[in-house]
Amino acid sequence: MATSPATSLLLSSGHRIPSVGLGVYKSPPGEETYGAVLSALRLGYRHVDTAQVYGNEADVGRAVRDSGLPRDQVYVTSKLWRDAYGYDKALAAVQESVRRSGLPYLDLVLLHCPSEPGPREGAWRALEEAVRQGLVRSIGVSNFSQAHLEKLSRTATIQPAVNQIEVHPFLQRRQLVSYCQAAGIVVEAYSPLSKGHRLSDPRVTGVAARLGVSPAQVMIRWGLQHGMVSLPKSVNPERQAANLDVFGFALDESAMAQLDGCEEGLVTGWDPVSQDPV
Length: 278
Ligand code: NAP
Hints:
Layout: E1 8-10, E2 16-18, E3 22-23, H1 31-43, E4 47-49, H2 57-66, E5 75-80, H3 87-101, E6 106-111, H4 117-132, E7 136-142, H5 146-155, E8 162-166, H6 174-182, E9 186-190, H7 202-211, H8 215-225, E10 229-230, H9 237-244, H10 253-260, H11 272-275
Parallel strand pairs: 3-4, 4-5, 5-6, 6-7, 7-8, 8-9, 9-10
Antiparallel strand pairs: 1-2
NADP nicotinamide-adenine-dinucleotide phosphate binds at residues 23-26, 49, 112, 142-143, 164, 190-196, 199, 214, 216, 231-236, 239, 242-243, 269.
């Protein structure tokens, strides 16, 4: 457990990833996502997490370009949707994501979920090729169980740098997180605020009140102290600022114990981790 988590983590690809990233799932395409990403970059975010299926890659790319920040100072992730799995379709889809973003390359591209084994294997080879072609710096997966990861590692020539999964105090996936971390795969916690469902849980609000921070900051910091990247989503500049302001306090042992005790297997969205075939 890291009581002083770093502001970025080193990936197996050799690149660093900022520990807090802005999620843009359900951030409406067009001016709203553009404005949310631009505001976040001005507030100090250096990491944005989008996906083909969110429909807002172009808005993210435009905001990054308009921010005036050098390209290598902002970390941009996208994800390949399952209808583009299979080698040829996947390679074309990555090229299309890069084109849509208007950026010279993407920092990280993930398989969004395991889906079916055959097309998944082809899609992974396409991501490896995208790295060779310089379209993408690092590649990884999302919603993969240990069994999905073990199968992939047997044929991969580039091992996944990250596994992006739903994790928060109410869904901790401890075994999978330990497996990933032991295998050198960085865990990215999505829906780190439990989509808001447990922000008013008294154990979270109790810790927040004692430490003089907000419940959202407590949830984000809990993930960071467990060595994960955290991807809170907000389109509201005040909440964005608060969600990034998590490096000036620490959760002590009793706070971590209280939050570690919140496990209830709460899946707030979909669950390909346990549902997709190996
Ligand atoms: P989340 O970040 O846990 O929660 C977002 C919700 O909390 C929004 O309604 C947001 O509203 C609200 N919120 C944000 N900051 C807050 C604060 N400080 N206080 C109170 N409420 C706050 O949920 P998520 O969007 O599901 O997950 C985050 C990101 O993870 C996504 O955007 C996406 O990038 C990624 N994700 C990936 C997958 C996958 O399958 N790989 C699945 C789900 C999510 P406002 O916007 O109005 O502030």
